[in-house]
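Here is the promised in-class demo. Please do not try to memorize the tokens; focus on the logic of going from shape to residues.
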């Protein structure tokens, strides 16, 4: 499905009926990241997964604001455009937090629950190797030129060997020059220092909203030593999967769904 916002077309997938779950992917993904998870959830929930601006099949405005405020403003506009008026369940992965968690911080009354998987939202983070490459002029552009399907597959499988060949082939097929430019702009705008203040607001939000963390331990991009799974949970439930990596929802969709559905049954507000 496609929605048009401010003369720009954005792609999203929608399946099921019931309370809305907004599933927000990371890099280098699209709404397809959630494809194996959605069938477990859509029997009771309305699952909505957008391609973020400039990713997958979504276009992006030339003047898109690559800031945390700009990201959350886009999500707010998207939700209004698809007529979401009730509180939502939010599921975010990787750079999807730049859109989802910032939006939740600014719109707490519209949030029913938050589920977080393998991401960053703290100012003490140090960008991983590829993040540093993408943030560096010339090196980032060169890495885009040298990207091949073999490098793409080996990179993702370094963290998540359970990813299927079909998943990897579909993901690579959606990588375009537009998406590659978007990644460079996004990473170059997101110095860890931008989370100062936001991280405190997020932790305050966790005192009033149900939070679930599902974390793959074999993640080369976010060191376990940072303790982000527990820090993001902030005293609430964190499930750590010893045999999963960065793309845990695609590696273990059934287990991920079981954790989320058990969590949802405890939400009373």
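The designed amino acids, position by position:
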């Amino acid at each position: 499905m496609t929605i048009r916002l401010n003369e720009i077309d954005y792609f999203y997938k929608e399946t099921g009926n019931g309370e809305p779950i907004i599933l927000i992917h990371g890099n280098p993904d699209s709404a397809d990241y959630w494809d194996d998870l959605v069938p477990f959830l859509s029997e009771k929930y309305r699952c909505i997964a957008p391609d973020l601006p400039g990713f997958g099949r979504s276009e992006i405005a030339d003047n898109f604001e690559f800031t945390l405020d700009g990201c959350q403003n886009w999500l707010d506009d998207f939700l209004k455009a698809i007529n979401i008026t009730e509180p939502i369940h939010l599921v975010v992965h990787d750079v999807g937090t730049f859109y989802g968690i910032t939006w939740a911080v600014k719109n707490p009354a519209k949030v029913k629950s938050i589920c977080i998987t393998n991401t960053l939202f703290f100012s003490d983070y140090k960008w991983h190797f590829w993040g540093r490459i993408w943030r560096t002029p010339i090196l980032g552009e060169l890495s885009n030129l040298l990207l091949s399907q073999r490098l793409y597959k080996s990179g993702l499988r370094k963290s998540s060997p359970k990813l299927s060949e079909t998943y990897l082939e579909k993901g690579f097929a959606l990588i375009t020059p537009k998406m590659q430019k978007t990644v460079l702009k996004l990473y170059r705008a997101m110095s860890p220092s931008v989370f100062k203040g936001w991280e405190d607001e997020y932790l305050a939000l966790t005192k009033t909203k149900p939070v679930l963390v599902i974390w793959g331990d074999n993640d080369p991009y976010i060191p376990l030593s940072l303790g982000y799974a527990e820090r993001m949970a902030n005293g609430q439930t964190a499930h750590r999967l010893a045999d999963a990596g960065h793309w845990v929802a695609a590696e273990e969709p059934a287990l991920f769904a079981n954790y989320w559905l058990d969590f949802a049954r405890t939400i009373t507000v």
